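Researcher: Next entry in the queue.
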Amino acid sequence: MEHRADEGLAFMLQYENVAWYEDGAVRILDRRVYPTEVSFVSCLRHEEVAQAIADMVTQSAGPYTAAAMGMALAAWECRNMTEQAQVDYLTAAASVIANARPTTAKRMQLICDSSLQAAKTALQAGERVDYAIREHAVRANNVRYSKIDTIGKYLVERFPQNGTVMTQCFGETIVGMMLKHARLSGKNIRLFCPETRPYFQGARLTATVCRDMGFDVTVITDNMPAFVMEREHVDVFTCAADAICLDGHVVNKVGTLQIAICAKHFGVPVYVTGDPDRGHPTKDSVTIEMRDPEYSLQAMGVRTAAEGVKGYYPAFDMTPPELITGIVTDRGILSPFELQSYFAGGGQGEY
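Model: Structure for this entry, 351 residues:
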């Protein structure tokens, strides 16, 4: 197999530890309990992969790897059908997996469609389809990780020596690549990670990757960013995005908007990492996922509110372009007001 772009990254960023297909099953690292517990959810049907994505077993960019591995599993399920029946089955499976969560459905559809194309190529060549899709997933991950490696390099150039960086939620691959380039450039940064309730991705995932890669990291609660920005002299606020609309609006984990507002007040630059989405010309093309409000009434399974109290749980919010200093892409740092220039310059987009 060709060189893997996950080499040297933290445990949970290794392909096999995100999601992996093998002989009729997909195993997915359960990020709901990691790092306190290292366990994997095993899926024996592609519908179970879609459900695991919906249930937040894997988060951030994890669902994109899980989606491709789920397509490999679907290929196993229909392996004894005729060629056309397999194509039909995989087409239906792609729709199920892609729509597991509404806000990221357009990116997920691109991944599932490319997996379907890999399946058609394998069928025509008489190759084993499930493994062909898995190999396609690894190649696609290599491309994505390599693009994000470039993004990480551009981002770190904006970090001062001995700087203080605040993150939001878990940016998956960009966290590892950002830290790799900080180390390579000799920038001894420290990080503050808001916890990101109710799943605590910042506390459990981002902070663990930062620790595993040898960086000074501090977890703060979600109501501390303004205080920390002022008191600890934060130099940069950075986050990834679940969608980057061509009108400059950024969709990311709920809480991103309020941190960006604080950053504007304190004069802290805001850099969002990722490439623009062709499928989202404006913010109006994005559906904000509303999750079970009961999750906002508990913390890691322990109820924190009285019975009869109502909850409210939007999974994402939208940050307008006027609060964003730059969108860090694989083709450089762009103004959020000029994202069309990315494609005009030959950029390929997120997926």
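Model: The chain has a mean pLDDT of 96.
Researcher: Noted, moving on.
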